[in-house]
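Could you help me review a protein record that somebody else here produced? What it holds is a sequence and that sequence's fold in token form. I have pasted the whole thing underneath without changing anything:
=====
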Amino acid sequence: MHVAIRTLAFALALATPLAAGAAPPAHLLDVDDGAVTLTAPDGARARFDIAFCVLYRADEPAPKLLPADSLRTRYNVVTWPAAVAADAEVAQTRRDASEVGDGFDSAILQGDASGRTADAFAAAPRDCVKADHAQRLASGGYRWRFPKRPGFTLSAELLPGKDGPPTLRYTLDAKRAGYYSVAYMGAPAHAPEQTQAIFQPLVWTEKRFPDRSYLTLAFQATLPSTLVEHNGQVEGVVVDAGEFPFEPLPVFTNSRFGIALRNPTGQAQPMVFAPVLGGAGSRLKAGERFAFSLRPYVHRGSLTVGYEHAARTLYGFHDYRRNALSSLNRTLERIVDYGMSHWSQFREDDKGSSYETDAPGTVKNVSSLNPLDLALVTDDAAIWRHRVAPYIEYMVSREKYLFTIDETQKIQHPSYTLEGPAAPVSELAALHRIFNGASPAFLALAKQEYAGSRTRNLDVHERGDTWQNSLALYRASGEQRYLDAAVRGADAYLAARIAQPAREFAGVHGEEPFFWTQFVPDFPSLLELHEATGDSRYLQAAHRAAREFTQYVWFAPAIPAGNVRVNPDGMAPHYGYLAGKGHPPMPAAPEDAPAWRLSEIGLTPESSGTASGHRAIFMANWAPWLLRIAHATQDDFLHDVARSAVIGRYTNFPGYHINTARTTIYEKPDYPLHDPKSLSVNSFHFNHVWPMASMLLDYLVTDAWARSDGAITFPSEFIEGYAYLQNRAYGGRSGRFFAHDDAVLWMPAQLIQADNVELNYVSARSGDGSRLYVALMNESDAPVSSEVRIDVARVPGLANGKVRATDLHGLSSAPTFNEGVATLQVPARGLVAFTVEGAGIRPGLQATVMSASAKDAWRTPMTRITDPAARGMVLDYGPSMRSAFVFLENGKRDYTQVALRWSTGKDSGVLVDKGFPWEFSVPLPDDARRFTWSIEGTRPDGTIQKSAKSVLAR
């Protein structure tokens, strides 16, 4: 039987709008007794058999998560007791010291693997059937009949699709009690080597083909589908959005389906299993029924093109968020205030952020550039004194990001010594540039690190002479040899990582991926190199990598209309990891919140190794990079993903992740203002506070750049940090604001306040302070009229009388500020900009740092002695901001106290440190020409060891 019918495709799937009254394009269906051939509106065509395998067990299948034993990445997979003992293939894995803390579940990592299988087809005997007769329905669809089976009756219907491809709905009637799973087995199958790309969330991407038939459960399905790119089109199956409820929050125990890609013969064949054997809905009594719907899918283009199309048309993804709660500026200001408060757990004596959440007794920092760019842009000397200066000293002295003096602490591989720098080459190079070469020690340390190698985070070994580091040293030194090395290295990287898709879970140099940015090519660095060289190849590579990255971003469950009731019992969700550490539940008022505000769509899990417990993390440091690449390549998908990650999610530091259940508690401004033991909804990694602030500042600046089509742009430095914490740092150099090329990014706290929360802003001052430049950005899809207030204490030129704005962009008439207040209209998702003349701005910290100069640099900025091992260096940040920093590399057990004897020729002194780490900071007058230092250590027996003198000279 052959019949051709048409089904309507959802209009939103179109690349161009339809004419009024026109019908959307149709999917063509060619139906026979055992299959349907689907032709998409774009011409892509594939045959889908109406074929299923039914898995059945009478006993409890007891599914549980265990670490995958054969992948070169850490990832938990669902396992079952093998139906046949010989099929048990999961090996017991050994947990290491880095797999401790938030996100690492001991029940999973130390679970018993004996007798278990991760192969879905080895979990139970299967009975495979294919339809043998098709019947046309009055509705326009089709029903298929299957051969009779003793244990069940199966039927399937093909229903016309109102939003794209047709819906294939199957029904199982159980004839005997037990546990069932039905696998759809009719999608096209190909030899893996004949595919161009594959997708099975979370880790099987590019051409990393599964080594067995792993099942990805619903709660780990970023897009509930498996896809194959083959001969210029994408083929797959997508779970119907109606089968994936928004509530409750998807977790292991409520996952109703699974998806797989490797079939029993080892071919790449998209499959859906529903229910999951042993999971929700799988236990049926005789006579009970289970029904499920999926979408056969085919689309012309690459896998990422098909992925985007499916996300948009079948799960409704779009640019869906707005500020709603707070402007992003006000949120950023609250996070900075939080970072300066005692709540943020910065230990000033230790110069680091508490890392108690994961490793008791430790501190950890990410990058000194995080607080530094906030201090410069907000022109805040307190941030400098209490965060930036200690951060820099920590990063140049400590051996690793994670530090403790407790040598019994082994969790996540901390360091116990000051054999630094922990700062990577790029950070040291950036510090050299930010301070205009006034502190040559930074460049000297950068070149030292470039010539060697180091383990900075966890147990990850890093080479110094990478192409990324070559680019950093070129920027800092101006030496062409480093740029040449960067280009050579990047070209080899393109050949190894871009020209051919990844087939293994290993980087170019064999490194194991863990965070999602490590699963794809290094798009931040590729974009940086593109901007340094102008070579479009690097932009194209960054674009491809960024699109591949979106496969780790949530696009499901689809967001329902209306509100969702959260905190129904007056308590916030209680995160199991923290409950296990004794953290009590937190009260939270019941609330009806719009579902879109609660959605994880646009965020990612943390990593492959912690995705089982971290549904979605708020640290979306990748978002500004996607926004930049989106504008440079005119890619709306990347733009919409970037906005979805950041906009309208929180009003203060929200903690780390969404987990357990949906709630609004982390939206609240006072949420983080509690003792750590009182926080129990999600984990707090206090070293993330300043990186999140940098992320939001980077997003604001990038958004203004993109909306102004590059007319608003500011110089930046690359923040490498570690893991996925890459962003750009700003402040301290002049950029461009439309026609003005003297614009210095300048955004002191509450400089500009708008009555409407949908307005974000970016502001800058002219080099001489006579002008204030302002850009307002509307985050809603409706025009906004809002009163805008500029702080006259910061901009005294507005304090008296009326001032009319000039140099208008996007404004039909010039706003007049009356004592700093005016009403402005900003178009939907638009940008308006203006200039205030006669501003009278008097910058503080920012101006001081900008006046740092290489002409003041010391000719001997750093020295080292060996007995005891100690280093001294001059840190020059600008006038009245110079110091000598001296520290011992170790010696914890060698001394009970250490004294520093120092002299500048005019002044001298002795500083005594009575506890390890042994370190000293000595302020230097601007006219100091010499700093002589020596160490005296008091041994446990009371004797004193005196070092030779060392001289730092100008």
Remarks:
- The domain at 734-848 is CATH 2.60.40.1180 (Immunoglobulin-like).
